[in-house]
Amino acid sequence: MNFIIFYFVMKYNFVCLNCNKTIKPNPNISTCPEPNCEGAFEIVYTNTNTKSPQETLIPLSNISNLTYLGQGNTPIVRLNTLSDNFGINNIYAKLEYMNPTGSFKDRGSAMMISALSEFGINEIVEDSSGNAGASISAYSAYSKIKSHIFVPENAPKNKVSQIQLYGSIVHKIPGPRDNSTIAAIKYSEENSIPYSSHNLSPFFIEGTKSFGHEIIKHFNNKQPDHILFPIGNGSLLIGSYKAYDEIKKINPDIKIPKHHGIQTESISPIIEIFSNNNWYPEQAKSTIANGIAILNPPRKYQSVNVIKKTNGQGIKVSDESILKWQKELARKDGIFAEITSAAVLSGLDKLVKQKIILPDENVLLPITGFGLKDPPKDLFN
Predict the structure, then answer these.
(1) Global pTM?
(2) What local confidence, expressed as pLDDT, does residue 1 receive?
(3) Residues 346-361: b if buried by 16+ CB within 10 A, e if exposed
């Protein structure tokens, strides 16, 4: 079912998540300028007088400036076989791979590139393991913005090819995922080009809110009890919660689902913080879930806060389990999820076994990317 989302243009500021410093929006500043802070920003609207649950707040001066390539209004389908197999009332999948470039990242990229265009930005630097890079490349191409995308040397070839097809300049960086971030920031500073990281950009987060608004409108008075998210930096998790929080202020009766975060056993900084454990990048091991393999996510504490505020859980899953459930989802309910996306099925399995998700409850799983973007090597084994 498709829904029309009415966008409500608002004035806003950047507010640091660490020290609460407030500054005027500036696309050339990616982290807080206060000494020894470097916190990520979130957007706080200065005037929230909208009273309609049909409106979502956006950081643009004019709604006509929102770049649209067909993002949003992705289908929600019931997983009939897996609902029966898990013994759960309803398990729904929201098919985020139906977005224009094949992942949920288009929601954030559309808003971020639109905002940057309003500021007159014509060249950007971004780092990505693949999906965000492809998405930002597409929206940059449409908006006539030159883009430099820094990717890990071992990034999936299909994703890198997609980035190149949109005309972005690709910089391949050896080593772990975070090396691409370091190289991108250095290049940005040396060449005086804005570093427009999807992990840091508050505009990107505002774009992902549309995911939550669509769920709210689809389910109306019967919201899901649980939503499970694969999280690297947590942008979809955070955006979903912000959408529910906005509507809650207008409609106090709306139920906010428990937001659960899923990471791999190999790289799990957000889950370790949630569980009050120490995390050091040196603990990281290789994982097949490249899309959530971020050693030091800048919004890690914001993600933890969302999980806790919604009474959710932080779950670690193994690569073996992810591969198993990727195949189960395809063979039982006909959905070919990207490896990273399949992590939510592994998390669901654990939460059901732990009796955190109960038989009479309803669950929603965002399928954040399409399987052909990064097909497993042993696909037919």
Answers:
(1) 0.93
(2) 46
(3) bbbbbbbeeebbeeeb
